[in-house]
Amino acid sequence: KESREMSVCGLWLLVLALELLGGSDSAVSSDCKSYDERSRNAGKGSPSVATEDRKVVCSNMELHQVLPPESFPNRTVTLILSNNKIQELLNGSFIGLSTLERLDIKNNIITRIEPGAFLGLTALKRLDLSNNRIGCLNVDIFKGLTNLVKLNLSGNMFSSLSQGIFDSLVSLKTLEFQSPYLLCDCNLQWLVRWITEKGVGVKDTRCAYPRLLQGTLITSLMLEKLTCDAPLELPSFQMTPSQHQIVFQGDSLPFQCMASFVDEDMQVLWYQDGKMVEPDATQGIYIEKSMVQNCSLIASALTISNIQPGFTGDWECRVRTSRGNNTRTVHIVVLESSAKYCAPERVSNNKGEYR
Ligand SMILES: *[C@@H]1O[C@H](CO)[C@@H](O)[C@H](O)[C@H]1NC(C)=O
Ligand SMILES: *[C@@H]1O[C@H](CO)[C@@H](O)[C@H](O)[C@H]1NC(C)=O
Ligand SMILES: *[C@@H]1O[C@H](CO)[C@@H](O)[C@H](O)[C@H]1NC(C)=O
Ligand SMILES: *[C@@H]1O[C@H](CO)[C@@H](O)[C@H](O)[C@H]1NC(C)=O
Ligand SMILES: *[C@@H]1O[C@H](CO)[C@@H](O)[C@H](O)[C@H]1NC(C)=O
């Protein structure tokens, strides 16, 4: 405590003033708390505040982005940004935090990480990105994290990991990437091989798909079980509407279809009664394709803007890949505008009111 009062730097005087008011905690930026990190680096004979290791906690602050690196004390060794609403990590987000050893960004809503996001974190040993919405990890994401020992990617949206993604993590010892979407197919063979070769410990990470391998630990997988053979099993596949519909002539009917993106050659196609539906502006048929959650999901939307009786039938969303197809179908009945109505009949009983 006495050592802190010897600080001369203006910025630290503010921190000190707040420390004196608020006990051992101090404010860094808005509501972040800064603590002494039980010094491993600072020896007994070095009383300067500026060389003291700091732990900065910015949890539960509704942060939508990472605070600028300048807002953290010079010797920040631990930075906790968990339980916020951070959506993306931009290039250079942590530049200058060259003493940082532990970065925890779990329980946010990160969907996108720009290449270069972790640049400058040369001392980083532990990185926790668990429980976010990361669907896609660029091969260059982890560049420069040569001292990283522990990486947690559990609870994200990706169903696979691209070859080479961990190449720059030369010090990695522990890895975790449990996910309800994890697809154990031929695209993960490289990873199983790499884990064995590098002697990296993989914790609590089990296949979610295909069903045949569900629950199997990644570390106990035989390479030959990792195939891309038929049948195609998709970790996620939804069509809306999902229930049969009755619609009126002239109405607009939007369909949505979304599936896990598991193969480069994957296509989402639309069929009516087994016949492919193509976009046709004169008939008011529009089809829009997109990639969502950056490469974890592929989506397509079909809109029929002016539905006609001829559109009655089975409407199908088909996911087509070289290893097989998957489909979802709903039955649509179009009522002609000339259709006669009967007066509604009401029934009330102890189960409710029916019309
Ligand atoms: C942080 O370090 C830089 C460069 O070493 C120095 O110029 C600056 O004054 C330091 N800031 C604080 C708050 O100690
Ligand atoms: C990230 O920023 C650095 C410098 O700020 C720049 O040199 C680099 O090209 C950027 N990387 C990407 C992928 O934008
Ligand atoms: C990784 O993250 C998950 C989800 O937050 C957590 O349950 C698990 O304990 C973490 N693993 C390690 C090794 O910290
Ligand atoms: C996906 O990535 C692109 C470019 O990298 C970006 O512009 C877009 O906002 C991202 N979308 C989502 C949903 O993360
Ligand atoms: C998948 O669908 C395509 C047409 O979209 C069809 O030609 C092919 O035979 C189907 N494959 C399987 C395995 O059903």
Question: Topology, please?
Answer:
Elements: H1 10-22, E1 26-27, E2 33-36, E3 54-57, E4 76-80, E5 88-89, E6 102-104, E7 112-113, E8 126-128, E9 150-152, E10 174-176, H2 189-198, E11 201-202, E12 237-240, E13 245-248, E14 253-260, E15 267-272, E16 275-276, E17 285-292, E18 297-304, E19 313-321, E20 324-335, E21 347-349, E22 352-354
Parallel strand pairs: 3-4, 4-6, 5-7, 6-8, 8-9, 9-10, 10-11, 13-20
Antiparallel strand pairs: 1-2, 2-3, 12-14, 14-18, 15-16, 15-19, 17-18, 19-20, 21-22
The structure holds 2-acetamido-2-deoxy-beta-D-glucopyranose (5 copies).
Structure characterization notes:
The longest helix is centred in the first third of the chain and has 13 residues, at 10-22. The strands form five sheets. The protein has a nine-stranded mixed beta sheet with strand order 1-2-3-4-6-8-9-10-11. It has helices at 10-22, 189-198; strands spanning 26-27, 33-36, 54-57, 76-80, 88-89, 102-104, 112-113, 126-128, 150-152, 174-176, 201-202, 237-240, 245-248, 253-260, 267-272, 275-276, 285-292, 297-304, 313-321, 324-335, 347-349, 352-354. It has two domains: 25-225, Alpha-Beta Horseshoe (Leucine-rich repeat, LRR (right-handed beta-alpha superhelix)); 237-335, Sandwich (Immunoglobulin-like), CATH 2.60.40.10. Helix content is 6%, strand content 28%. The chain has 355 residues and is mainly beta. It is elongated and about 80 Å long. Mean pLDDT is 87; it is low at 1-27. Bound molecules: 2-acetamido-2-deoxy-beta-D-glucopyranose (5 copies). One 2-acetamido-2-deoxy-beta-D-glucopyranose binds next to loops.
